[in-house]
Design a protein that fits this description.
- The chain is mainly beta and 212 residues long.
- 15% of the residues lie in helices and 38% in strands.
Length: 212
């Protein structure tokens, strides 16, 4: 009994002299694609891709009234304080804010937000950690968002740093645009952070260490 082996799909033998030109053509094609990809990536980088272009961020003075999507915001100064309980340096940027929208709305924090601050002394960059609305001493009575139709209220943004913050803070405020950022989805359009915006250098008052 003869046991059949796997089918042979190799076909007739190929002459080595015929195979060499084919390999050479493939090398040229892949080499051309690699060069084209490198040129494309270089062009994207030169045009400001893969990160914010610095010419899209407009430098303004503290106290400038900023129209950012559905928000009207003013930032004037900041405080820094070391918290021994957590070991972090709490930086609070103060100013005022209101919404120009017709619905109650609150800015988002972290990666989804539009506020970023850098300590020039160390280069450490942090994103907004939390917000406080109004100036009531009773935290339970403070608003948790901006209410449409009202005048500007006190608005504070907290950033948490691992290293000490000195007498200056570079604050960046990015624009917001209303769109659906998913091409294939049924999600409703929403306010999204874009690469344009504003920057300002705020004076920082360093407060005594809080020991708890």
């Amino acid at each position: 009994m003869v046991t059949a082996g796997p089918p042979n799909h190799a076909g007739p033998p190929v002459d080595a002299a015929q195979a060499a030109p084919a390999r050479g053509q493939a090398t040229l094609i892949w080499g051309g694609l690699a060069i084209g990809l490198a040129l494309t990536l270089t062009l994207v980088w030169a045009l400001g891709g893969f990160g914010s272009r610095r010419d899209e961020i407009v430098a303004v003075a503290p106290g400038t009234n900023l129209q950012v999507g559905p928000y009207e915001l003013v930032f004037g100064a900041a405080t820094a304080q070391h918290k021994t309980s957590s070991g972090t340096y709490e930086v609070v940027v103060t100013g005022t804010g209101r919404t120009t929208s017709d619905t109650t709305i609150a800015p988002r924090t972290g990666e989804s937000g539009f506020l970023r601050a850098q300590s020039p002394a160390t280069g450490e960059v942090q994103l907004a950690d939390s917000f406080d609305y109004g100036d009531s001493q009773d935290v339970s009575l403070r608003a948790r968002a901006f209410t449409p139709g009202l005048a500007a209220i006190s608005f504070a943004t907290t950033f948490l740093y691992e290293q000490p913050v000195s007498d200056e803070l570079l604050l960046e405020v990015f624009d917001q645009e209303f769109f659906d950022n998913y091409v294939f989805s049924d999600d409703e359009p929403a306010w999204n952070t874009v690469s344009t915006g504003y920057s300002m250098v705020l004076p920082v008052t360093v407060l005594p260490e809080e020991k708890i």
